[in-house]
Amino acid sequence: MTKNQTLRRALEDGKLFTAMAAHNPLSAKLAEEAGFGGIWGSGFELSASYAVPDANILSMGLHLEMMRAIASVVSIPLIADIDTGFGNAVNVNYIVRQYEEAGASAIVMEDKTFPKDTSLREAGRQDLVRIEEFQGKVASAVDARRDADLVVVARTEALIAGRGQAEAIERGLAYEEAGADAILIHSKQKTPDEVLDFIRAWPGRIPLVLVPTAYPQLTEPDIEALRKVGIVIYGNHAIRAAVGAMKDVFATIRRDRGIRQVDSYLPSVKEIIALQGDEHMRSIESRFLR
Fold first, then answer.
1. What is the pLDDT of residues 15-31, one digit of tens each?
2. Mean pLDDT over all residues of the chain?
3. Is the pTM above the cut of 0.90?
4. 72 with 27: CB under 8 angstroms?
5. How far apart are CA 149 and CA 207, in angstroms?
6. Which of 246, 259, 250 is nearest to 49 (CA)?
7. For residue 68, what pLDDT is reported?
């Protein structure tokens, strides 16, 4: 099966699909090695890696090229986070084809205004577009895909914006009507109660997508038992792991005024070279260098 078919089949079969965030090809390779089903091409992580807010400050082209680079080094599906679609329904129609050509197996688009503010920021700007406007953007994304197995996920930020369960359900159903293959429901509450209420009330035919960043107590067995969730995304754990590890190593080196302590628990240079694809390069050398 193609990557697109793998993701599509997982949604149709009802088996929970797991995706780990990545902000570069190396973190994507590590996620694949760890056994995740797919990669979340996170806009938050990419923005953080450039030390800028997740507020559409980085260009679409930069994100697109990073998705292309990630897709080229993994054999599992890539779910691309395209934020608000970088414009209106016309923009969406153009960029979805570009993400598809770059190797994305799914795109996730949210119903906030452009430029967006990150969902989990306290007192952030969480302004939503009209339901009808976002329906047009979803329908445009569906129309743009050349491969019918490309998954279009509509993300509603109604709970993030404090609009309540009724509007969240209304928006989810409207986006399903527009052709979305799945609905991502997000919450910044510290417990999963708000999201669980939405899931129990969800009357739609298409599966849901969860990003349990704010409520880590919700495990995969818990999510599977709900029987309405198709994908769980670990949305920012790669960049948080990287930041935590670097801070610890850097502080230890400055404290010790040397690398003697940290060298014993860091991955070896040999391991890094292997991740760079050195074996493949050596194979090319042996075959073609004259």
1. 999 999 999 999 999 99
2. 96
3. yes
4. no
5. 15
6. 246
7. 98
> 208-239 burial, b for 16+ CB within 10 Å, e for fewer?
bbbbbbbbeebeeeebeebebbbbbbbbbbbb
With a CB cutoff of 8 Å and minimum separation 6, the contacts of 17 are: 7, 10, 11, 37, 38, 230, 231, 232
**Cα separation, 24 vs 191, whole angstroms:** 30
Fold of 3-238: TIM Barrel (3.20.20)
In terms of Cα–Cα distance, which of 160, 86, 80 is closest to 121?
160
Compute φ and ψ for 86, nearest 5 degrees: 55, 35
- Both structure tokens of 268: 């070896």
Let me know: does 75 contact 107? Beta carbons within 8 Å.
no
pLDDT band at 124 (very low <50, low <70, confident <90, very high): confident
CA distances from 148 to 48, 97, 105, 133 (A): 33, 12, 10, 23
Q: Count CB atoms within 10 A of the CB of residue 162.
A: 10
Amino acid identity, position 222: D
Mean pLDDT, residues 100-125 taken together: 89
278 is catalytic: no
Q: Which of 54, 83, 149, 181 is catalytic?
A: 54
Domain ranges of the chain: 3-238, 243-288
**Phi, psi at 206, each rounded to 5°:** -95, 155
Average pLDDT over residues 38-61: 96
